[in-house]
């Protein structure tokens, strides 16, 4: 199983329980799972992490290989994902936020394309119409999370 990590895995870890000065082993472990192909993320998450201008952005900058760009295989999942989102009657703002180069959208498409397991702190909320949640989109696309 290869895990695809959401930004909300990195940021809370850095800010609390796995701070770089408290648990450097966590960040070393991420290097190990990167090289062994057991975990990765996507460029959109990379951009989020770089915005912080802190130890996490330094780590992300030095581990560019951990983050993948959308390719044709990932892009082939855009249409099914968009169709599903439209069928769920999300608000126009929610649909626009989800599909406008959003890391969540790209993450689900990449996971579907490569059979990856998404790791996120989000929880499913199939009744929500104001925000598309990663777990709900994963469920719809047959992606483990």
Automatic annotation (TrEMBL):
InterPro entries: PIN-like_dom_sf (IPR029060), UCP008505 (IPR016541). It comes from the Bacteria. SUPFAM superfamilies: PIN domain-like. This is DUF4411 family protein.
């Amino acid at each position: 199983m290869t895990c695809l990590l959401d930004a909300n895995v990195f940021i809370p870890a850095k800010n609390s329980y796995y701070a770089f000065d408290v648990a450097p082993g966590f960040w070393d472990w991420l290097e190990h799972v990167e090289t062994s192909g057991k975990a990765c993320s996507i460029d959109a998450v990379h951009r989020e992490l770089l915005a912080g201008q802190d130890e996490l952005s330094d780590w992300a900058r030095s581990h560019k290989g951990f983050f993948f760009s959308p390719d044709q295989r990932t892009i082939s999942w855009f249409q099914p994902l968009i169709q599903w989102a439209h069928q769920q009657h999300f608000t126009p703002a929610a649909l626009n936020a989800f599909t406008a180069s959003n890391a969540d959208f790209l993450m689900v498409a990449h996971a579907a394309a490569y059979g990856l397991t998404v790791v996120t702190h989000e929880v499913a909320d199939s009744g929500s119409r104001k925000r598309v949640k990663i777990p709900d989109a994963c469920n719809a696309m047959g992606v483990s999370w």
